[in-house]
DNA sequence: GGGCGAGAAGGCC
DNA sequence: TTCCAGGCCTTCTCGCCC
């Protein structure tokens, strides 16, 4: 990279493509003999002038600015600074060395050109021909014949076709890939039941035990596993065997395709191996990190990370520097981590750039629905919604909002996403994404006997479930002595809980549809009727003899519901604003709050009936009060705190000083 | 002034 | 001719609160 020079568009060189930082010329398995300059030139020629290209230039300029800034800081370091940082490095090296574990044998399996190989199995006529899975806009993977032309994953199809005019495009079919992936995983499970699936086509296996039990070496197990994978699927894979996952992953790439590489478990072999290894080979170090390390600090190999450790600790955050140093020592994960808990879930779609608001809202609705479906499938509820937009000029914007309650409802997601989008208009957009984070996982991850409560919360349109409510729900349940909240009792109760909830959901949706065209008071009346009816249905299920006619005409049943449910009065707003159960006052215009409030009483009542507990928690007023004070922040929850113990933060890092990266994307 | 949470952005596969 | 994904994670900055 031509450091410090202007961006590529203004480069006066007769070979401007040389400074175009495409990722497509990076060495990847099967691309060894590729004419890199030709690929780079074609990619440059086809990209230049496009909005994508301009955006790349902007990013490139930003990266260069960052590198320059780092260099400046580097130059300002005094020898005593460096000597102090060196002491830190020396100490950390000792500490890290103490954690070195050479007793484990890890195997990394990587399927060869997975999607392309599966497609070739389905259609043998593709064998031997250059082929890519994907379309003209983007390809997901390419077979080895296509890679000889420089075609590779994440490359736009139109560029791939230019590089290889005979390229055959096959559409992506994830169902098929998942099926084959399942077959490979069955094989993996025979060697390590706790194997870590990284993606559809990659996995880590701790084969220490199987090696010992069968008296076989890592190489022999790898050979056997690959052979079983082939006989089960007809697909080839490559494997790496080493003392930790980081090294095993590097090793699996060495003899690709259909090969394996074993790195012996002794320190000097590891250190020799790592000494000349380019940093880019390490998982977690990508294009940007590679450039920063090389151009700001002159670090190209893993060994140099240790040699220049003082600079790393001077310029990077502690966690980033620790990561780099451990890489330089050839250290990596050796334990089987507990199941990674996801932090967010998202859905996004790219389409032709448009500024048509109606179209944008309709895309938004589709995505909200998809996200909601995914969340329900995974049993997740969350309270932070982030809208991501990629504008026609490839600028990425994200706008987030934290909701008052945990939800997975598409209505809720869409409602808030619409507000976020509205604030950005007018804008021409080519991608919309929605992400939900801050999961309700204290409950999700709590003891298994609470599964049905979780299910209840999740399956219910949780849009109206307040955190406080859930917490009290949970606590009440767990405090209930004598195991009256056993799994069995939940099972029994779940049926009618679910029905009530589903009924209520339907009612809610119906009422919402009507509401849009109704006056506020009328809406409130209707809601009262529906609330009363939901309780009634619940009651009917408990007492099957109750008249069936109740359900037929909800609007006519409210008073009936009251009369047949005397021991637990239905929720009713006295004088139109006061809850008869707890006395809290909420004017009719506080529609959402009133809905939540009634939900709370409903849930509490069901809970109490099941557990026999009469413990009652008044729904928190603090949020309601917070609402009244329009600008006050909601009471801080314990967030899903960064679980720093789980993984070394790797992928992204920044210098310790201020970034001062003028955020053009910021602030409107 | 430090701790903390929310929002935004960057980065990797 | 066609003009660059989708998902997830981490860190940073800023502002509020104690």
Structure description:
By secondary structure, the protein is of the alpha+beta class. Helices cover 48% and strands 12% of the residues. The protein has helices spanning 36-47, 51-76, 79-98, 114-122, 144-147, 157-163, 174-191, 208-214, 218-233, 245-252, 267-275, 287-297, 302-307, 309-315, 318-328, 357-378, 410-424, 441-444, 451-459, 467-479, 487-515, 520-542, 558-564, 591-611, 622-628, and strands spanning 106-111, 131-134, 139-142, 168-170, 196-199, 202-206, 237-242, 260-262, 344-354, 382-391, 396-407, 429-439, 573-574, 578-579. A 5-stranded mixed β-sheet has the order 5-6-1-7-8. Helix 10 links the parallel strand 7 (237-242) and strand 8. The longest helix has 29 residues, at 487-515. It is globular, with a radius of gyration of 30 Å. Mean pLDDT is 67; it is low at 1-13, 442-575 and 603-668. The structure holds a DNA duplex (13 and 18 nucleotides).
Shape: globular
What is the terminal-to-terminal distance? 34 Å
Number of separate domains: 4
**What would you report as the Rg, rounded to the nearest angstrom?**
30 Å
Largest sheet, spatial ordering of strands: 5-6-1-7-8
Subcellular location: Nucleus
Keywords: DNA damage, DNA repair, Metal-binding, Nucleus, Transferase, Zinc, Zinc-finger
Biased composition (Basic and acidic residues): 625-645
Domain UmuC: 106-286
């Amino acid at each position: 990279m031509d450091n410090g020079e202007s961006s590529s568009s203004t480069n006066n060189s007769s070979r401007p493509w040389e400074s175009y930082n495409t990722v497509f010329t990076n060495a990847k398995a099967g691309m060894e003999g590729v004419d890199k300059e030709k690929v780079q030139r074609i990619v440059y020629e086809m990209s230049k002038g496009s909005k994508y290209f301009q955006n790349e230039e902007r990013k490139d300029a930003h990266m260069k600015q960052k590198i320059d800034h780092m260099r400046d800081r580097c130059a300002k370091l005094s020898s005593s600074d460096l000597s102090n940082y060196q002491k830190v490095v020396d100490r950390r090296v000792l500490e890290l060395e103490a954690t070195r574990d050479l007793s484990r044998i890890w195997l990394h399996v990587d399927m060869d050109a997975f999607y392309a190989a599966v497609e070739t199995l389905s259609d043998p006529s593709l064998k031997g021909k250059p082929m890519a899975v994907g379309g003209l806009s983007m390809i997901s993977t390419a077979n080895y014949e296509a890679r000889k032309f420089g075609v590779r994953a994440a490359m736009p199809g139109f560029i791939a076709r230019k590089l290889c005019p005979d390229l055959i495009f096959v559409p992506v079919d994830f169902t098929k890939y998942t099926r084959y992936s399942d077959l490979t995983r069955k094989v993996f499970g025979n060697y390590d039941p706790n194997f870590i699936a990284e993606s559809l086509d990659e996995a880590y296996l701790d084969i220490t035990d199987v090696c010992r039990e069968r008296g076989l070496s890592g190489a022999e197990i790898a050979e056997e596993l690959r052979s079983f994978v082939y006989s089960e699927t007809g697909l080839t894979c490559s494997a790496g065997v080493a003392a930790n996952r980081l090294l095993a992953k590097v090793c699996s790439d060495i003899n690709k395709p259909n090969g394996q590489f074993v790195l012996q478990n002794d320190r000097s072999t590891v250190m020799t191996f790592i000494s000349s290894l380019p940093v880019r080979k390490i998982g977690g170090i990508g294009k940007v990190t590679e450039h920063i390390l090389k151009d700001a600090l002159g670090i190209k190999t893993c060994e140099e990370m240790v040699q220049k450790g003082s600079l790393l600790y001077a310029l990077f955050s502690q966690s980033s520097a620790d990561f780099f140093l451990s890489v330089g020592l050839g250290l990596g994960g050796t334990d089987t981590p507990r199941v990674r808990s996801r932090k967010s879930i998202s859905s996004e779609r790219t389409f032709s750039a448009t500024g048509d608001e109606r179209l944008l809202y309709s895309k938004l609705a589709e995505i909200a629905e998809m996200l909601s479906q995914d969340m329900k499938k995974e049993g997740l509820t969350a309270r932070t919604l982030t809208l991501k937009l990629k504008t026609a000029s490839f600028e990425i914007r994200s706008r987030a909002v934290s909701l008052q309650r945990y939800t997975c409802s598409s209505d809720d997601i869409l409602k808030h996403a619409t507000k976020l989008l509205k604030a950005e208009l007018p804008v021409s957009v080519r991608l919309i994404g929605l992400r939900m984070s801050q999961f309700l996982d204290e409950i999700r991850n709590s003891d298994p006997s609470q599964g049905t409560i979780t299910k209840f919360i999740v399956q219910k349109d949780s849009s109206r479930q307040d955190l406080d409510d859930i917490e009290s729900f949970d606590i009440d349940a767990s405090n209930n002595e004598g195991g009256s909240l056993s799994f069995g009792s939940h099972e029994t109760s779940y049926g009618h809980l679910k029905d009530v909830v589903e009924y209520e959901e339907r009612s809610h949706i119906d009422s919402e549809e009507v509401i849009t065209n109704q006056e506020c008071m009328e809406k409130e009346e209707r809601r009262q009727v529906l609330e009363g009816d939901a309780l009634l249905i619940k009651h009917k299920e408990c007492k099957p003899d109750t008249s069936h006619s109740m359900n037929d005409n909800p609007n006519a049943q409210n008073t009936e519901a009251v009369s047949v449910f005397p021991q637990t009065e239905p929720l009713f707003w006295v004088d139109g604003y006061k809850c008869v159960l707890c006395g809290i006052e909420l004017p009719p215009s506080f529609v959402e709050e009133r809905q939540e409030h009634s939900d709370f009483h409903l849930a509490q009542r069901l809970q109490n009936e099941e557990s026999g507990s009469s413990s009652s928690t008044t729904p928190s007023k603090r949020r309601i009060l917070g609402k009244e004070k329009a600008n006050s922040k909601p009471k801080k929850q314990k967030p899903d705190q960064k679980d720093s113990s789980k993984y070394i933060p790797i992928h992204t890092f920044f210098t310790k000083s201020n970034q001062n990266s003028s955020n053009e994307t910021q602030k409107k």
